[in-house]
Amino acid sequence: MARKTPGINTGSMADISFLLLTFFLLTSSINTEQGIPRRLPPPKENTEEIKIDINQRNVLDVRVNFRDELVVNDEIVPLSQLTLKAKEFLENVENSPNLPEKESKYIDNIGEFYVSKGVISLTNDQSTSYSGYVMVQNELQRAVNELRDKISTQYFGKRYDNLDTAQQAAIRKAVPMNISEAPPVDYNQQPAQ
Fold it and tell me: Phi/psi of residue 124, each to 5°?
């Protein structure tokens, strides 16, 4: 008669495996994709179209065509120049009549500050590549970040990222990110103007 071999109790092994799995899930970090930070407009309360009258000098018209070429105020501009154009537009150091108006506002932690009324209007072609879209967004974000760094260094002696939350809020009021994004259009089928 053959001897029976004793079995191994594996019930506790399953418990240990489950605890290890739980531990690694809770302690590991999962990289999440960061989106493009933009303030979305509030939802429409009625279906009537509301016209907002904006002085044309306060609008920087940025269009990206189907070949990912930039057209800034009807002038083809290389991507490398977009940050500079946006900064010149938003900053308007010499208070040029062709660039945006400025409005004097009192900002906590800063005092009286002339805030630009400039708005960057971004329109993409339906065939614009995603990478082209993201590169344009990055250049516009870089322009705002550089202006914020400049103002924060001027008023607080350090870069925007190193400021406390109250100081960062003041800088965001001084240099707002006013980017208006229109729905994509098909520039090939636009009527001639």
Answer: -110, 150
Name 61's Cβ contacts closer than 8 Å, sequence gap at least 6. 71, 72, 73, 74, 121, 123
First to last CA, the chain: 101
pLDDT tens for 87-130 read 999 888 888 888 888 888 998 888 899 888 888 888 888 888 88
Write down the pTM of the prediction.
0.69
- DSSP-derived 3-state class of residue 11: helix
Q: Which two tokens stand for residue 62?
A: 């940025």
Q: CA 90 to CA 122: how far, in whole Å?
A: 15
Distance CA 61, CA 40 (A): 19
